[in-house]
Amino acid sequence: MNDHVKVTFEEIFAEPHPTVYSFDGVWTTSYKVFTNTKLWCYRISTLLCAVPLSVFWGIYFALLACCTIWCCRPCIKAYEIELSCVRGFVVAVLDAIYRPCYETMGYLFFNIRVKVLKQVE
Description:
Strand content: under 5%
Membrane topology: Peripheral membrane protein
Shape: flat
Function: May act as a scaffolding protein within caveolar membranes. Interacts directly with G-protein alpha subunits and can functionally regulate their activity.
Helix content: over 70%
Largest sheet: none
Keywords: Cell membrane, Golgi apparatus, Membrane, Transmembrane, Transmembrane helix
Subcellular location: Cell membrane; Golgi apparatus membrane; Membrane, Caveola
Family: Belongs to the caveolin family.
């Protein structure tokens, strides 16, 4: 999960060419500084933000679930029940008017064959 935020030192900083490189001490020190800074910034920011944001998102998803279960789904089910008679009427009209026309058109074009001839020059 969250693969897009998994960043390593080598993905950010890379030497331009194998023959052009910095001192080993600079590279290892930079690696340690980068990884520790990233680790401690993440720890401090989660220390400050994790609990309040957990409360916020817990409330949000609880209200969303409540609204979905007690408001949205019953409304959708009521519309399905109410519109079932309209659906029956529309299906009957389509079967009576459009279906014969389309079946007739299908029978008319059923035996049409297209033959493509390629002329040789």
